[in-house]
Write a structure and sequence with these properties.
globular, 16 strands, 4-stranded antiparallel beta sheet, 287 residues
Length: 287
Amino acid sequence: MIATARLPATFGVEVDFDLRQAPTPAEAAELRNLMAEHGLLLFRGHTLTGAEQMGAAACFGRVSCDGGGRPMEMHVSNTRQSSAPAGELIFHYDYAYDPDPITVISLYGEEIGAGSTPTLFASSAKAFDALPPRLRHQVETLSALHLCVMDRAAPAAERAAMTGARIERGQPGWGPKDWRNIRPLVWQSQAGVKSLYACLQHTMRIMELPIGESDALLAELFDHLYAPKNVYTHDWQPDDLVVWDNITVQHCRPKPNDVPRTLRRYEVSDIDLTEQYLAVGRANKFL
């Protein structure tokens, strides 16, 4: 059995496992079980190559590829070209606004200066489990709209008018205005773990409610999602590898400092969608 230690939150474990050796099928299955139970896995103390990190990500499914069919290595960095926007990023799931968001994300501390910007995580699964019965029953019948380019501070009338209508990803004319999707407010991971699928950055409204009632309910849900006990702050150390379920755990980057920080990234998805988003994002100067 693989040894673990709880992290200081309602979710997540540090895993005592050397990923420099490829996991056996039995070990990979145990890691998947740990992911289903805890939502986030932290590995420390070993310098990993890109290939070793990719092998770890592959325990959880198909590693996303670039346009040439190669496993897609990305970097989130303030010292080199980055695959993520600069600045503060409030709590979100990556590609919440796509019909098929990536399922698992892995970030490895490739270049970490002392005191570099942390990453914060919140468990939507644990938040759902902890909801009062009245609220659990209510949210299970509702759906939410997720957008990329509209701020939640936009006027209520504009948000109330939003729908899920869009050009499908990759089709002619597809662009940021089409980065939107409606899905159940209670969704689940591939392992069947239920998640209160709402986040500060992308969830604009609950479709079945008038906008005022939607805002009030989302505010109540966010109080549960971002309660201090349900948030894990990860202070990066060199060679840290953090792997998490992008359906049951969301993340954020607080206002960043200038301390060097480069995180190497591989992600798990049955569909190669990231390169399409990066191309449009760069064309629109989001990156």
